[in-house]
Structure formats: structure tokens, C-alpha cells
Amino acid sequence: MSPSRTRQAFVGTALLAASAVAYSSAGFYTRLIDLDAWTMLFWRGVFGGLYLTGMLLWREQGRVGRAVRAIGRDGVVIALCSALATVCFLNALRLSTVADVQVIDATIPFVTAGIAWLVIGEREDWVTLGATLAAVVGVAVMMGAAASGGRVAGNLLAFGMAVLMSLVLVLIRRNPGISMLPAVGLSAFLCALIVLPFARPLSVSGQELLLLALFGISQFGLGLLLLASGTPLVSATRGALIGVLQTPLGTLWVWLAFTETPGSTTLAGGAIVIAAVVCDIAIRRPQEAIT
Predict the structure, then answer these.
(1) Which of 23, 12, 153, 10 is nearest to 94 (CA)?
(2) Please, how many CA atoms are within 13 Å of residue 151, restricted to the half-sphere of its CB?
(3) Roughly what angle, to the nearest 10 degrees, separates helices 152-174 and 236-243?
(4) Contact 80, 108 (CB under 8 A)
(5) Contacts of 158 (CB under 8 A, 6+ apart)
């Protein structure tokens, strides 16, 4: 790699790692705030959208209109998919355990690899294909436990979120020269609009509103901002791989704060998925350094 490409990859990796840390706090907030999912999603979207709008105004200043028009059709699709993924994700956390949802979230790199090949022609090698197969086995182990635990609906929502977020990553990667900050900001407001008919936004207390503001800004808004900034700097699959940091971190925060211990089958399935991701990174990184 040239020095400039190496620097670009390093910056992208750092931004995406920070995004994963921000996103990993979702399970913590959903356990901390005792509200229905729809009301939580509404305020999270409002505060996240306001934060991203402020960042857009600060970054673009007098060029906001041009920045919004530049996102094009892909930007609109990114906004729609991101909003729907958010709805799926938070409701999955309500219907399943944080550990189950995070394990399914760990399959995003492999879903992304398939979509990237179909949409932008990025082909993955046999190492990643083998890791994909291992990840599918891990999810199958975890889903077997969910069937007896009554968590199938939550896990299906989590898988829908994984597909939608994979598409978001690929479309951002397809437009490396265009800032998708307006698209992710739109997705936050769109999420709030989608859930408004089911939400009770005026039922929250002052303390709950403060927690919702922290949720919307530090987890959702900041996570989306860092994701949109870092994804164009690395491959779509590598970006998704970095996002898997959410899996151990999300479970860790909830375990430390609420002592929600994952079941043995969930841990076994998760271990298979994480091992697949680690092996893929470890084997491919030396190959990329040579090329």
C-alpha cells in the first residue's frame, strides 16, 4: 500500500472502531430507560437527527443545499434502510437478549460481502467464504436455543437489521466522494416519523427525556456520523468486520450494569461467529499488506 492509502485505511479503521463503541451502548440504554420501544425510538431519532443536522450545518455552512442534493438516489435508499434497520434493532433488543441480537449482528460482514459482490463487484476470496459458512453455523446454533426460548421473532428482526445495514455500508462505499451525512441525518428523522403513530412522546418525564437525549446523541447520532465518515475509507466488508466490535462490547456493558448473563448455547454460537471473524482478519491482513 502507498503511504496515503495506508493513512486513509488507518483513519477509516479508527472512525469505524469509534462508531462500533458508540453503537455498542444500545443494549445498555434500552435496559436503563423504562419506556416502550416506540417512544424510545421516536425520541432517539429526534435527538440523533438534531445532532446530525447540527453537524451538517457546521461542516457545510453555506453549502448545505448542495450537500443534500449530492446524495442522490443512493442517499435516499441509505436513509430508508438505516431507518428500518433501527426499528428492527431496537425492537429485537426488546424481544430477545442483547447477546442473541449482537451475535446476529456479527454476521453483517458476511452479508455485506455478498451484497458488495452483487452491487459493486467486490469479490471476496475463499477465506471469507469459509468464514461466512462458519458464521452461518454459529447463528444456527444460537437460533436453535432461541426456538425453545421464545425469542424467534426478536432474532428474525435482528437478521433483517443485519441485511439492511449491509446494504447501507455497500451504498456508502459505492459513493466514496460524496458525504452521506445528510442521508444518515434524514434516516434519524425518518425513523422518528415511522414510529410516531405508535409512540407516546408526551408521556416521558424530565429525567427520561435527558436519558433519551444522551441515547440519541451519543449512541445513535454519533454512531451514524462516524459510520458515514469511516466507511468510504475502507472496503465494505472490512468496515462491517470492524463493526463486529459491537458484539463483545454490547454484551459487556449490559453484563456489568445489569448482570444479564448470556446462556451457554448463545455463547457457543457467538464464539463460532467471532472466531470466524478473527480468523478472516488475521489471514487476510498479511495478504493485503503484500498486495
Answers:
(1) 153
(2) 22
(3) 140
(4) no
(5) 88, 89, 92, 96, 100, 101, 104, 105
Whether 41 contacts 87, CB under 8 Å: yes
| pTM, rounded to two decimals | 0.81
70 grid coordinates: 449530492
Asked if residue 23 has pLDDT above 50, the reply is yes
pLDDT tens for 74-105 read: 999 999 999 998 888 777 877 877 667 767 77
72 with 64: CB under 8 angstroms?
no
Q: How many CB atoms lie within 10 A of CB 65?
A: 10
More confident residue, 115 or 212: 212
Q: What are the CA-CA distances from residue 118 to residues 82, 123, 171, 267 (Å)?
A: 19, 9, 12, 32
Q: How far apart are CA 123 and CA 248, in angstroms?
A: 28
Kindly report the CA angle at 192 between 229 and 207, in degrees rounded to 5?
Answer: 95
CA distance 130 to 31: 36
